């Protein structure tokens, strides 16, 4: 039996993410991955049972890393504005450090892997955000609302800006580059929309 190499395993994960972002899940195969890594297909099976096993394991591992990044320095006892600001800062920093991950997770959200994706992400994050939401509603900082409505107003603008930045253009096709000024001006509008 051949031995595992940590460096090779990391290369496999990185290339898998890149290929899924580039070609979508439909265009992703173990053969393409082996070729991109310049290794034999058999080597992939040292690390993963099959394509599904690879995708699920990479997803769960990356979600844990993303969860850690998103809750860094975040305290559910923070005021609404302070807590939301920390969330935006953490999410923005994560997107800058791992630009392909948002696109990778978007591929998964609209696939048969959605259940694994969502269940892996709801542990610590769900508890912390639930407590935060309870606190800010209890203190009268924002109105009670379904979590999906809150998320749509609180975070969709950030993710749309990140998408425009990644694409390098706005919806009208004009060049677009994210700046701190655009980020925090948008954040201020979101806070105004949600605060009582």
From TrEMBL:
Top-level taxon of origin: Bacteria
PANTHER family: ACREF/ENVCD OPERON REPRESSOR-RELATED, ACREF_ENVCD OPERON REPRESSOR-RELATED
Domain HTH tetR-type intervals: 6-66
Keyword DNA repair part of the UniProt annotation: no
Molecular function terms, GO-annotated: DNA binding
Residue ranges for the DNA-binding region feature of this UniProt entry: 29-48
Designated name of the protein: Transcriptional regulator, TetR family
Keyword Secreted attached: no
Keywords: DNA-binding
